[in-house]
Amino acid sequence: MIYKLSNKRIVVKFGGSSIKDSFREALEFVLKLHEENEVVVVLSALRGVTDALLGLAESKDKSVIGKIARKHSILADESGVDCDILEPLFVELECVLKNERRFPNKGAFIDHVLSFGERLSVIIFANALENSGIRSEVVDALHVIKTDDNFGNAAVDFSGTAKRIKLIEKLLNEGKVPVVTGFLGGYKGLRTTLGRGGSDYTATILGSLLEARAVLIMSDVRGIYTADPRIVKDAKLLPFVSYEEALNASALGMRALHEKSICPVMGRLPVILGKTDSYRLGTFVSDISAEVPILTYKPVNENFACIGVVGLREVNFNAPIYKKGKNWISFLVKREELENSLNDLHEVIFK
Ligand SMILES: Nc1ncnc2c1ncn2[C@@H]1O[C@H](COP(=O)(O)OP(=O)(O)O)[C@@H](O)[C@H]1O
Ligand SMILES: N[C@@H](CC(=O)OP(=O)(O)O)C(=O)O
Predict the structure, then answer these.
(1) pLDDT tens for residues 312-341?
(2) Which of the listed residues 220, 254, 275 is the one where a domain comes to its end?
């Protein structure tokens, strides 16, 4: 594997859980990274805000705006940032809600409403960095990540995006920390989104185009485990996961990494997953594999879910096989039995 990398450049993404529960630690981590590296920060919306905005786009219930505003004011206050700087975004949000008919279609309207989550978090983060003495600038991905008009799950135009990456290069050359909105893109001036959980994808697109040394995905778990550690208490942290395993696991529902996020970095640069509140890095995603299976799950419909096993083609388990691939297999289980089945299957494989 040949990495063509700018040796001091790192892209670090913080997910919604980190923005909500570990904002101070995320800031401190960036300050530490900045001592030795050029750092690009990618942020998600505060956990729960994208869902709230989705509801708001439907209901247009003004009390939701109040709730979102309060959450961000508290975060701004705690971070020593004047919450008045958020006001223009709330004025814009109200204006967008009153003018749905001006959008070409419902999807374009919804994506514009969803954009406020990430746009609010980057303003607070960039200002908090400035208060800590780091020169920083907000980058709205509308102006960088060029997409098609498939609102809600837009496809990225990589050559169009590559042309716009200079905007971020310029900030890095000025010694600033760009703080980029994850999840968002742009199509002819309209706002698009890359699919739920798409901030990981933003980070790997930027890491690849900026020829970064690594992309760090910081979350509320230390990395990729043998199964969701919130459901399977015996799950073990995997120090090495191959690109292919990460791709298969995320496609089969593993939430720790977005399915699309592997493609831009595959064979080019590593993705490292870590836990924000302890600064612990746990999993290195590259060509190297620990050759340990990963259990995944996702809903199939209202009544059923599928459990995937990445890294094995055959498993003796008491459930119907749902699908099979080159190096994975999945089983169909009732949704109410999902947790027990995951634990049982984990025991079968790792006993
Ligand atoms: N195999 C796995 N390894 C690690 N985390 C997993 C796994 N499967 C599911 N998860 C879940 O992924 C979550 C992290 O993803 P997500 O909630 O999208 O984080 P963030 O808010 O940082 O974007 C963890 O809290 C964990 O419950
Ligand atoms: N805020 C978006 C994008 C995202 O990536 O979120 P997270 O990193 O919290 O999964 C969402 O909720 O889908």
Answers:
(1) 999 999 999 999 999 999 999 999 999 999
(2) 220
What's the mean pLDDT when you consider all of the chain? 96
Same structural domain for residues 75 and 183? yes
Query: Which residue owns the Cα nearest ligand 2 atom 5?
Result: 197
Closest CA to 180 of 37, 50, 44: 44
State the pLDDT at residue 351: 84
**15 CB under 6 A from ligand 2?**
yes
Please indicate, yes or no, if residue 247 is contained in any of the structural domains.
no
* Amino acid residing at 83: C
Displacement of CA 129 from its chain's centroid (Å): 21
- Which residue, 209, 98, 114, is CA-closest to 153? 114
Which residues sit with their C-beta closer than 6 Å to ligand 1? Answer: 15-18, 44, 47, 197, 219-221, 224-225, 227-230, 254-256, 294
Residue 350 has φ and ψ, to the nearest 5°, of: -105, 10
Query: What is the Å distance from ligand 1's center to 55 Cα?
Result: 23
Q: Please count the structural domains in the chain.
A: 2
Same domain, 56 and 204: yes
Per DSSP bridges, beta strands 328-334 and 321-324 are antiparallel
Q: What is the ipTM of this complex?
A: 0.98
What ligand 2 atom has the least distance to the C-alpha of 17? 9
